[in-house]
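Here is one chain, start to finish.
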Amino acid sequence: MSHVQLYTDGGCSGNPGPGGWAFLLRHPATDKQLEKSGGERETTNNRMELQAVIAGLTALKRPTQVDLFTDSVYVGKGMSEWMPKWKTKGWKRQEGKKLVPVKNEDLWRQLDQLLQTHTVRYHRVAGHSGHPENDRVDQLAVAAYQKYL
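Its structure:
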């Protein structure tokens, strides 16, 4: 199974507001890279963080071992802690004494499908900390939403 590094970021100008996402895929064995970004006129930070990961994983052509580097605790905890519970509860989460729909369920379901194909290991990166790849995807995500300002 091939191995890649995936760096992702998403953000908004206002939350909700114009948003952008970006990813950088790197194949460590060859040092080949792929960067992509996109944006939406009205969205949220969390949706853009998810979209960045989904777009990066979708770019892979075959099952791959992926080291995911993101500053999004929402994505990391969602993948590793929350999603398994949501699935057992029919994509619902506990709010007080009742079950309510999971926010961004459409994107979480897409990510869940991709996680059936790829083996993804989450790594937390501190945002705006001088991490070169994280800084790069942040720049791309900001540029993606600026066209909507």
